[in-house]
Amino acid sequence: MTLEIIGISVLWLFLFGYVIVASIDFGAGFFNAYSLFRGKQHILTRIIQRYLSPVWEVTNVFLVFFFVGIVGFFPKTAYYYGTILLVPASIAVVLLAIRGSYYAFTTYGGLRQKRWTYLYGLSGLFIPASLSIVLTISEGGFVSEKSAGLELDYWALFTSPLTWSIVVLSLASVLYISAVFLTWYANKANDEPATELLRKYALIWAVPAIVTATGIIVELRDHNPEHFSRLMDLWWLFGISFILFAGTVYLIWKRKLYGLAFGLLAGQFLVAFFAYGVSHYPYLLYPYLTIYDGFTNEAMAIALIIAFIAGLGLLLPSLYLLLRLFLFNKDYVQGNRDDHA
Amino acid sequence: MGNEESVFFSRVLTELTLSFHIIYATIGVGIPLMIMIAQWVGIKKQDEHYILLARRWTRGFVITVAVGVVTGTAIGLQLSLLWPNFMELAGNVIALPLFMETFAFFFEAIFLGIYLYTWDRFENQKKHMLLLIPVAIGASFSAIFITIVNAFMNAPQGFDIVNGQLVNINPILAMFTPAMPTKVAHVLSTAYMTSAFVLASIGAFRLLKGSNHIYHKKALLLTMKIGLIFSIATAVIGDFSGKYLAEYQPEKLAAAEWHFETEEGAPLMLYGVLDDGEVKYAIKIPYALSILAHSNPNAEVIGLDQFPEDEIPPLYIHYLFDLMVTIGMWMTALSLIYVLGTWFKMRFVTSKWFRWLIVLGGPLSIIAIEAGWWFAEVGRQPWILRGIMRTEDAATSSGQVDLMLLLFAGLYLVLAIGSIIVLTRMFRKNPVEQELTDRELEKEGELR
User: Fold this and answer.
1) pLDDT digits (tens, 9 = 90+) for B41-53
2) Which residue ranges does UniProt annotate as crossing the membrane (chain B) (predicted)?
3) Using CB atoms within 10 A of its CB, is residue B47 exposed (0-12), middle (13-18) or buried (19+)?
4) Which of A209, A309, B46, B253 could disulfide-pair with A172, CB 3.0 to 4.6 Å?
């Protein structure tokens, strides 16, 4: 394994972590707002608040980790993506900022207004939409290198069906991942009405999630044939991912083993995410930048990997403690304890 | 938009983001230590007031952390979005501390979540306090790692450039630049100092606004003591910073002190204005600059005459420097008088006017932090990476920076208003007296 591959795998793994934890977070915000809109807030709010409160900050760090790490391992991405993404990334940051701070303001500061709940819920859909555009751009075809510098063709980007399919996929996945997780969480809290409602959401969003995912593969055939053929070489990985998907839906449908159902879902996304990543190899940005010509020097790469391993040694036990105290603590989950400062 | 405009707006946007972020970041680095000290004193003295102090500070702290996190994310991304050429180069040499900062912050975020939601969960208060240690360490290390990057921008090392190619890169050497020790120490001690004075300012304000509770008096004395200790530390570190500048960035020191001609036994210019290249109304302290720069009244101090015109930082940094130092001295004196006055039971330290001075100290300390960072950043101009890359060559070529400036200005306005409303509401709705009575009742209920 070369240093380049270790670097990109580490980053990809963290991005995967972000996709899962952020999806749970975004989806929870949306379901919360939606249930308020439908007058069913009493069913969901408590369970969603219990989950979100102690972990919201941690979610953000996964993203920061990814973009700081990618500039470390692949400094050329700072030039390419930094120049292109000024507008979409700024919009995403502003949305993230509003969302994160208003979460703290409402939860700890008692700023409870319906308006904010709706804004909070909707921002959770706009953020994955704006972030997913980066994936579309990475497929190439929207960036041109001119004498004045790099330019992003917004018109081509926003009229491309690929862009919108990826946006829809990101939204459907967010809601699907979140619903499956919260079904499990509500079930652990012995909250039957919430479990039933979330189970319904999970089953509803399973369909668009899998349909758009398949649709995107088809669209890539025209948009980026090279990438498409590499995707096809990995068909068996997507097959495994589909089987895991079917398993999750079956368990949720039968109201059985929600914990395992979420495990299968995580597996489904992990396999698909890595299959996509591997097929994207070696390009970071079609056709300008590969992981080889964008890579940092050897000394820095080794230093970063050592720092990463040391960091993980610190983080994994802490994350475990966090999960044990809140996610897997019966008293906390069922609402028998609230020791907030 | 021409490239000149892109550079200009990139600079304005970065300055805006940093100026806003640094308020929350400074408080975010300093407050965990204050909470820890208060909780520790509370456990030691078995004094419910200090424990409650820690608890109430924690609640406010969460709000400032939230804003600090999101603006920190903004500046983290803006570095790449606005300065892609710089980050491409920096990524190769100084990515390590940036990367480690995310770990430090990760660590802090996890334990803050735990600390926040485990008040009263443990029988033994000490166990709960232990959870705060990683928060304080994580917060301080975030500051250390980021300051290391800033130190690198001031005194880059750990690489060579041969034919435009970066070679011989040594990430560890790049972290431990000559600028690093004084800069890191200065950032940490001023963060603790500022946090202490901001909290003191709140305590004094409550006392002025009619609450005469002993709780606020304890808070005030504790924070003023901590503030005094760290302002003395800051002054000592400031002396070392002067010596660092004289040795490694003489143009920055010379511009800050309006020291035009290289000379021995150089005097220090305090205040004054610059009129057509001539210093007027300044207080001139003989030999002081030579002492500051080299601990020797007769030592030679390099002046601006040694540098080409286009490598001299803007001369207005003198005002920023003076502002920072003056506030620092003022706060040292104020806290010293307060602590001594309390010790010797002098009446005037509890008088209204003196408490108003303490209230004023909070905002003043924040202004000093801002002035200090503007001085640090403007004083490095025209370089983004001293001697290697000019700021104008580092900026993005994108034409939409002005729009993004408006977007972010709107964001910061919303965040500033939001955080102020939430913080004042949080404490007004639940005053200390109320909370103390509630806790009393709760305890009696448990006993019965």
Assistant:
1) 988 888 888 988 8
2) 20-41, 61-82, 94-117, 129-153, 184-207, 219-238, 316-341, 353-376, 403-423
3) middle
4) A209
